[in-house]
Design the sequence.
RNA sequence: GGGCGGCUAGCUCAGUUGGUUAGAGCGUCACAUUGACAUUGUGAAGGUCAGAGGUUCGACUCCUCUGCCGCCCACCA
């Protein structure tokens, strides 16, 4: 191959699209079409991105990590399936479209358009968003099986949702009931507890009595709700109020007629406020519980629009809650009923999607009962227990482990899950009404009307692992790939999604949804801030791909990232990995252009994986093959344990610091020697191929591109009608090379030591220096050095070279000629080194002199320390000799 | 209020059951560099591992406490 064909620098943009197109054309993203006889399945379902817009760096990280696993397992010979899909994201999408339409001047889109037309708008937006997302996944190089693409709101998933709902309803796990729920006045829907965020704020805390004749003072931050009070609750043991318990007071409060009963209830904290709690059954979940226990009536005084209802009394009716609050407080103040007004820190409940302040309201909603006893096999259990058992039993392994605790804690506090929403975009609740009759599932026929509500988006996402594989049908995919192997997602949706998938899967298909959960962190900017449009610190993955390539972008998201920890991202970091991709390119360029002429036999002599035995001829050969074997085994082990970052770092260090910096350099010299040329070339080719394979899951594009050039004749995307099976993506994973006796390659380490010492001397003094360079050598090392004089000369640029064994120590090499420019400098350096060495020797001798240490420490540690100490002492003697000879 | 995590070089972070003189990348500085690569090479400087106790022959690692920083959960009205 001529050099002209290969540009000096790797240009990602010139190759990536063609490579992806070739992968897709091959069909290998689909495990059914993979070559070879594959038995073991490996499956990941892509956490479906919301169709609310475009992908950000967090998505890119997710794609990079999952593609890494999928490609690794595919090369290892598994039936690797990665299922793509998108999420309709109900509220998020609907409110986004609503906002867009309002920005375009439409006042109340839902009212103006009506259900059908409004949904058309949402669907149009969702479709565009979907197309963008799919395009971005391709740009990232994701080897997703597009033939199995799913959407949480498509026909097949709707069947799954309806089936799930029906079964849970039939089993009594889904019920309809009046409850005080979280009402989002902006989104005009209820939301689940998990969709409520708490923001710290300050609030005025008022202490007052309802009326002059009422004997007990209460405290609240929301006086306007008190027009709906039914009772005052006190603790049973509270002596202050005992005499009032059981009495009922009829009174006028801020224009409302109230009938207040004094009740005693354990849930009241006598130490808080006045120790008496005004019970507002309609607008507080806690109060609703108390009211239920005492049979108190519920009166809703706030409407869905966040305004006071007529029953609240004419004083406040029609007003917003804030206006009403001011009116009530003024009313109290005028009458001298207000005893205290103080400022307290208080958490405000905010709707996650719309940012609206939550208004607790009583509503008729659908719920999943998580505490209802159910029978599963022989034993009684509950949905909560199913969720706990899945993780406790080890059937689902959470990484990092600490999140298991968070998971259990969430379940402990879990209450019934409100699954109905009053929005339009989503799966319609599959319940039909006709008069008093109710039917669940398919439409029973004429005259029935369907429930207006839609389901929480997480209800459909909860089915994702099996609904994508064909459930409720008993499909081959479901049997083969479920439970899925790994769920890789962000820790921020552990509750929303991960827990719900466990719930749905263990209940509906009696299997865990996945065996392993790998939680990645959030991608932040270089200062650790969340990326947000308002901060202007958003790094768009597509921009980075355009500028530095998909491979560099992927590496920057994988290396340096540990599970569960946030990752700081910066453009410099991506640029650094672009440099590495280029390094790999240039290593290949060297190998291909210099030995390309002898290409055929070199290629034939080696295979990409399952490396055959070699007859290494030099120390460098033995050393690099041995290191390559170690590294490839270690990388495999690390990837197996999901240590992506460590695996990547190890590979990078080996590729750059060992293969490129040492072996390639040595190879330049070796291959000039007739006897060594062929082996050297073969080894270069062999290891390069192995490295491309090992790197492929990390950097699929550049590795596939180089691979195609190495096999230009059969290049899958450069020629017509070529076989896809020649592609790197389906080559077997290099399992590591087994190398000869082991140990003899250490001679090369000695040579490296000598060369480094010479370089250092040159660096310190600017000229080749003559000095005894202390290197620990065995007799065979010395002969190795004799044999490799040429290599040392060339690599160290030291000439001439003469190797001597020091008579005093038995260690060392002598490089001539001797002439130092700066004796002072040398003296200082030697002195410093000697001092360090002495310090070390003293502390080590101290330890070795400690009987207890020697007795208790592992033998290996002691032996290593002894050896190291001996070496240090010898070096010390050598250095001291140098110092005296200097004077 | 409950829980979790972090604190290691100027910056970003590794450090796998406790075991030699604690590592990498980036940045800084010095030097080098006409053939794979300036998207380069060689080297240097830089850390009492947040602090204090404890366990141990030995602690970045285990235990206790303290201090900052961050996150999650929570129906104290």
Sequence:
């Amino acid at each position: 191959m001529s050099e002209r064909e290969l540009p000096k620098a790797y240009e990602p943009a010139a190759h990536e699209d063609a490579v992806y197109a070739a992968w897709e054309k091959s069909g290998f993203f689909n495990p059914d079409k993979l070559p070879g006889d594959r038995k073991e399945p490996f499956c990941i379902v892509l956490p479906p991105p919301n169709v609310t817009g475009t992908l950000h760096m967090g998505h890119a990280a997710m794609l990079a990590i999952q593609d890494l696993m999928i490609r690794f397992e595919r090369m290892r010979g598994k039936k690797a399936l990665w299922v793509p899909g998108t999420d309709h994201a109900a509220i998020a999408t609907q409110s986004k479209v609503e906002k867009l339409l309002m920005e375009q001047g439409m006042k109340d889109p839902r009212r103006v358009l009506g259900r059908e037309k409004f949904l058309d708008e949402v669907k149009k937006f969702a479709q565009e968003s979907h197309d963008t997302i799919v395009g971005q996944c391709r740009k990232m190089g994701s080897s997703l099986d597009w033939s199995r693409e799913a959407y949480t709101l498509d026909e097949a998933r709707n069947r799954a949702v309806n089936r799930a709902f029906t079964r849970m309803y039939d089993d009594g796990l889904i019920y309809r009931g009046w409850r005080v729920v979280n009402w989002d006045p902006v989104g005009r829907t209820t939301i689940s507890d998990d969709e409520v965020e708490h923001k710290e704020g300050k609030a005025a805390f008022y202490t007052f009595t309802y009326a002059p004749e009422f004997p007990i003072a209460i405290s609240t931050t929301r006086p306007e709700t008190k027009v709906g009070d039914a009772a005052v609750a006190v603790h049973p043991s509270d002596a202050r109020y005992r005499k009032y318990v059981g009495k009922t007071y009829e009174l006028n409060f801020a224009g409302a007629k109230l009938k207040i009963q004094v009740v005693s209830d354990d849930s009241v904290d006598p130490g808080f406020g006045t120790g008496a709690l005004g019970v507002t059954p309609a607008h507080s979940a806690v109060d609703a519980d108390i009211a239920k226990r005492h049979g108190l009536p519920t009166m809703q005084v706030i409407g869905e629009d966040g305004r006071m209802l007529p029953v609240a009394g004419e004083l406040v009716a029609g007003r917003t809650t804030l206006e009403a609050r001011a009116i009530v407080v003024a009313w109290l103040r005028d009458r001298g009923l207000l005893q205290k007004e103080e400022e307290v820190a208080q958490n405000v409940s905010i709707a996650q999607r719309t940012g609206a302040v939550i208004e607790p309201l009583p509503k008729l909603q659908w719920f999943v009962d998580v505490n209802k006893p159910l029978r599963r096999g022989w034993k009684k259990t509950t949905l909560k227990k199913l969720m706990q058992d899945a993780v406790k039993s080890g059937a689902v392994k959470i990484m990092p482990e600490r999140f298991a605790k968070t998971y259990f804690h969430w379940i402990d506090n879990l209450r019934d899950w409100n699954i109905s929403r009053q929005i339009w975009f989503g799966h319609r609740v599959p319940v039909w009404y006709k008069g008093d009759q109710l039917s669940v599932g398919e439409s029973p026929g004429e005259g029935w009307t369907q429930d207006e509500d839609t389901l929480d988006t997480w209800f459909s996402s909860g089915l994702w692992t099996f609904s994508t594989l064909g459930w409720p049908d008993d499909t081959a995919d479901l049997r083969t790939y479920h439970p899925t192997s790994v769920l890789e997602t962000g820790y921020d949706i552990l509750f929303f999604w991960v827990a719900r998938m466990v719930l749905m899967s263990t209940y509906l298909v009696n299997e865990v949804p996945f065996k392993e959960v790998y939680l990645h962190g959030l991608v932040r900017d270089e200062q650790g801030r969340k990326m947000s449009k308002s901060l202007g610190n958003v790094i768009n993955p597509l921009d980075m791909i355009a500028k530095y390539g998909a491979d560099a972008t992927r590496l920057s998201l994988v290396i340096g990232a540990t599970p569960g920890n946030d990752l700081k991202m910066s453009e410099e970091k991506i640029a650094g990995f672009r440099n590495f991709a280029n390094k790999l390119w240039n290593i290949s360029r060297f190998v291909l252009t210099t030995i390309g002429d002898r290409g055929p036999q070199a290629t034939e002599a080696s295979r990409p994986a399952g490396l055959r035995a070699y007859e290494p001829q030099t120390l460098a050969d033995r050393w690099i093959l041995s290191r390559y074997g170690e590294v490839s085994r270690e990388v495999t082990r690390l990837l197996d344990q999901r240590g992506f970052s460590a695996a990547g770092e190890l590979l990078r260090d080996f590729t750059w610091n060992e293969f490129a910096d040492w072996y390639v350099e040595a190879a330049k010299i070796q291959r000039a020697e007739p006897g060594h040329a062929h082996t050297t070339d073969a080894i270069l080719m062999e290891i390069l191929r192995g490295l491309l394979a090992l790197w492929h899951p990390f950097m699929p594009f550049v590795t596939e591109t180089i691979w195609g050039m190495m096999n230009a004749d059969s290049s899958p995307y450069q020629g017509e009608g070529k076989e896809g099976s020649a592609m790197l993506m389906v080559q077997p994973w290099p399992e590591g090379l087994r190398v000869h006796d082991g140990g003899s390659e250490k001679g090369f380490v000695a040579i490296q030591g000598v060369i480094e010492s010479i370089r250092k001397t040159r660096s310190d003094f600017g000229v080749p220096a003559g000095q005894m360079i202390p290197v620990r050598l065995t007799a065979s090392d010395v002969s190795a050095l004799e044999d490799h004089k040429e290599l040392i000369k060339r690599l160290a640029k030291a000439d001439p070279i003469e190797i001597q064994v020091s008579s005093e120590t038995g260690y060392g090499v002598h490089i001539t000629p001797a002439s130092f420019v700066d004796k002072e400098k040398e003296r200082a350096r030697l002195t410093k080194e000697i001092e360090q060495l002495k310090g070390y020797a003293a502390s080590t001798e101290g330890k070795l002199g400690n009987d207890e240490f020697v007795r208790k420490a592992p033998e290996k540690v002691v032996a290593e320390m002894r050896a190291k100490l001996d070496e240090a002492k010898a070096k010390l003697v050598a250095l001291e000799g140098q110092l005296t000879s200097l004077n």
